[in-house]
Each structure stands twice: as structure tokens, then as C-alpha cells.
Design brief:
Layout: E1 10-11, H1 19-23, H2 25-45, H3 51-66, E2 72-75, H4 79-82, E3 88-91, H5 97-106, E4 112-117, H6 126-132, E5 136-138, H7 143-158, E6 163-166, H8 184-192, E7 196-202, E8 224-228, H9 239-255
Parallel strand pairs: 2-8, 3-6, 3-7, 4-5, 4-6
Antiparallel strand pairs: 1-2, 7-8
């Protein structure tokens, strides 16, 4: 799998999974994951981690998951190629999987960065990768400050043709709650006058760890889904578009198998 192969839809092709990967998916995957991250962080620390490197390491992460039996299903990716401007992508948030895999899916079609929690700066290795991608950091302590940082930082990056991926939910959950899915994506898209694209994802194949949140159980029997919605132009106060974004994600989550 390479960026050139994902045009609009992608479904993990049938393949034989090795005996050891079938019986010990966590051991095999996490061993490969650590290797990928350490290599990427080494380049980033030296200032040599490019956007293309980000794509490669992200797609290697996806391959590592596929190699232990995880199946991916991606749809409507072509909406990113149709855009004539950067955009804001707003999606639900289930696990660490999307943070590691989305660069290999989105970046070949639309250069982008994430809005991420400042706590990632405490990760001794992974932080070098994130810093190199010029993300917008939020501390989730003062909502007003976070809003200002996202709006100002997002507008600055969007003006330089860098799209923004944002997860409006404050925590990772396996469904979507309209009460916690805030309208920050709509607000940023409206201020920067760029389209908003909803993204529905199902990534609970990567569980939430009991002791270390990011190191949960890998369950290859659970399919991974990414579905991109059609771009929306924000009108008025954006309430209508926010509701459409929520409805799209909710409907897709119900349809995913």
C-alpha cells in the first residue's frame, strides 16, 4: 500500500497472516510500532523529518497493523483532491490509531497538521515527530485560551495552505456525544473562510490500555473505518453545518460493521 494506491476507496486486500502474528498480534505490532517511531523521531530530532517521511512512517504503521490481521476500509477520499483550498477536517476520536495512521491517508492529498493536546510534549520520543509537523497545541485547562490558540494558530496555518485536522471531542470515546463534540471546527472554518469536511472513523481495533492509555489491546477482528464527508461552506453562525457534521458522523458510525 502506498499513497498512490489510495485514490478514493481502499480496502485491505486478503492476505495470509503468519502464525505468530495471529496468535500474538500485540507483541508483533508493538515491536514494529516502536521501531517505526524511534526511526521517525531520530530524523525529526535532527530536523530531517519531511512531510514525505511522515507519509512513509504513517503508512508503515498501517501496514504493521494489516500484517497482524487488522482490516482497513477508507471511503470518499477523493473529496480532498477536489478542493481548491486548504480545509478543516473535524472527526470523532476513538484511539491513538487515527493519530498515527491518518498522515499516510490524508497528507498525500492535502498537506495538514493536527490540533493536539500539549501533554504529547511529555512523550520522550514521539514529541519530536509531532513538533516537526507544526501542530497546534492545546492544554485543555482553559477552554477560552484553547479556543484563541486554535483560531489564531489555525488561521495562520490555513493561510499557508496547511489544512487542520481537529477532534472536537475532549477525550477518546467509542461513540459520539453531541454534548461533548464542540463546534470549534466550524468556528475555525468560518473564520478562515475554508471548507469543513466531516470525518467519521471507527478505530476501536486499537483498545485503550488499562495502565498505559496509548498501549491498548490490538483486536484484528474489529474493522477500521475512515469515511470522509462532502465539504461544507459555513454560512451564518455555522449551527446548521455543525449539526450536519454531527449527523454525518453519527449515521456512519451506525453503518460501520
Amino acid at each position: 500500500m502506498s499513497s498512490a494506491e489510495i485514490k478514493n476507496t481502499y480496502h485491505t486486500p486478503a492476505k495470509e497472516i503468519s502464525w505468530i502474528s495471529r496468535h500474538f498480534p500485540n507483541l508483533i505490532f508493538y515491536k514494529n510500532m516502536v521501531s517505526i517511531i524511534v526511526k521517525a523521531a531520530g530524523l525529526a530530532k535532527k530536523g530531517r523529518y519531511s512531510g514525505e517521511d511522515w507519509i512513509v512512517s504513517s503508512q508503515n504503521m498501517m501496514k504493521a497493523l494489516e500484517n497482524v490481521g487488522v482490516k482497513f476500509h477508507i471511503e470518499n477520499l477523493e473529496v480532498l483532491n477536489k478542493l481548491k483550498s486548504p480545509c478543516v477536517i473535524a472527526g470523532n476520536h476513538m484511539s491513538v490509531l487515527e493519530t498515527l495512521v491518518l498522515p499516510g491517508i490524508i497528507h498525500p492529498h492535502q498537506k495538514f497538521t493536527f490540533v493536539v493536546k500539549k501533554g504529547l510534549m511529555d512523550y520522550p520520543v514521539f514529541k519530536h515527530i509531532m513538533i516537526s509537523r507544526n501542530p497546534i497545541f492545546v492544554d485543555r485547562v482553559n477552554p477560552r485560551t484553547d479556543l484563541q490558540n486554535i483560531l489564531s494558530g489555525g488561521q495562520e496555518r490555513l493561510s499557508k495552505d496547511l489544512s487542520i485536522m481537529i477532534f472536537p471531542q475532549t477525550t477518546r470515546i467509542f461513540d459520539i456525544d453531541p454534548k461533548t463534540f464542540n463546534s470549534i471546527g466550524v468556528k475555525l472554518a468560518r473564520r478562515a473562510e475554508v471548507p469543513l469536511i466531516p470525518l467519521a472513523l471507527k478505530t476501536d481495533a486499537w483498545g485503550i490500555g488499562k495502565w498505559l492509555k496509548d498501549f491498548g489491546k490490538i483486536n484484528p477482528s474489529v474493522k477500521v473505518h475512515f469515511s470522509f464527508g462532502e465539504p461544507m461552506t459555513i454560512t451564518g453562525n455555522g449551527k446548521h453545518e455543525h449539526e450536519k457534521c454531527l449527523q454525518f458522523i453519527s449515521d456512519k458510525l451506525e453503518s460501520f460493521d
